[in-house]
Amino acid sequence: VRFLIDTGASMVILPRPVADEAGITGTSRATATTVGGPQSVDLASIRSLKAAGITLRDVPVAIQHSGMSIPLLGMDTLADIGRIEIDGNLLTVHPASAPSGQPSRN
Questions:
Q1: What is the pLDDT of residue 15?
Q2: Separation CA 35–CA 60 (nearest Å)
Q3: What is the dihedral of CA 27, 29, 30, 32, to 10 degrees?
Q4: Staple 95 to which of 18, 57, 64, 82, CB 3.0 to 4.6 Å?
Q5: Taking Cα atoms as reference points, which of 31, 30, 14 lies closest to residue 66?
Q6: Which residues contact 49 (CB under 8 A, 6 or more apart)?
Q7: Phi, psi for residue 79 in degrees, rounded to 5
Q8: Does residue 92 have a pLDDT over 60?
Q9: CA angle 60, 62, 67 (to 5 degrees)
Q10: β-bridge mates for residue 49, sequence order
Q11: What is the average per-residue pLDDT within 35-59?
């Protein structure tokens, strides 16, 4: 799955069709504050997500029911991947180095 990096999103957000295709189901419901106003979302967890050569485990996600078609990679996940540097319109992720090379979110 390809994600759009969204520095305004606090977490991974999946459109309902993408979550359904990946077999991801919500375990609870919440109200998220979005640019378009409050939205009802399902909360779930992705078993593993690989980005910038780093694999994260048990990544929390919000599944949005309508209003979007592109999965968003939010700042919490970017911060778990490594140091974020923004210079003008260029965003650079410097992957964190850990002894195992595979940080896990617990």
A1: 94
A2: 20
A3: 90
A4: 82
A5: 14
A6: 12, 55, 56, 59, 77
A7: -65, -35
A8: yes
A9: 155
A10: 56
A11: 88
Between the CA of residue 69 and those of 2, 46, 55, 86, what are the distances in Å? 11, 18, 24, 25
Determine the residue type at 105. R
Q: How far apart are CA 53 and CA 51, in angstroms?
A: 5
pLDDT digits (tens, 9 = 90+) for 4-46: 888 888 899 999 999 999 999 999 999 988 877 888 999 999 9
Distance between CA 90 and CA 42 in Å, rounded? 32
SS3 of the chain: the string is CCCEECCCCCCEEEEHHHHHHHCCCCCEEEEEEECCEEEEEEEEEEEEEEECCEEEEEEEEEEECCCCCCCEECHHHHHHHEEEEEECCEEEEEECCCCCCCCCCC
What's the CA gap between 86 and 36, in Å, rounded? 25
> Rounded to an integer, what distance in angstroms lies between the CA atom of residue 81 and that of residue 25?
24
R_g of the chain computed on alpha carbons: 14
